Amino acid sequence: xxxxxxxxxxxxxxxxxxxxxxxxxxxxxxxxxxxxxxxxxxxxxxxxxxxxxxxxxxxxxxxxxxxxxxxxxxxxxxxxxxxxxxxxxxxxxxxxxxxxxxxxxxxxxxxxxxxxxxxxxxxxxxxxxxxxxxxxxxxxxxxxxxxxxxxxxxxxxxxxxxxxxxxxxxxxx
Length: 173
Fold this sequence. Notes:
7 helices, NTPase/PRRC1, nucleotide binding, transferase, nucleotide-binding, manganese
């Protein structure tokens, strides 16, 4: 079975590979850059969900695969500050869409201010930390948790949860 991932980001591919191993799903993963149809930095949960679904559908169509998976990081303003999260969409050949998000992490206000001005989280965190391309590695969550929780682990758990609609379809239909 071919599983198309709507990204070539190393952390996202690792997350999907580990999730499929955990689920016992036989696969050949192919990552491909596709358009999310949303801003480079999604600023709401709905925009993150839309981006994840678009990535999953576009990757599936482009690679003519059985499953498409889209992963989209996003932020959401709350009364308590800006929260970071990530959304995963799984699309199958029957048009079913499974959705899940990973944990939420409060962003430092100095980061949130820059995102509100239109910057993207990855480059902002690179400039603040002095590191390069952290979104390919530990991600913002890895930096903020001192490496205790990394981006691939967060997306791994969300990917497993997004498969619920596919692997337990009897409860959804």
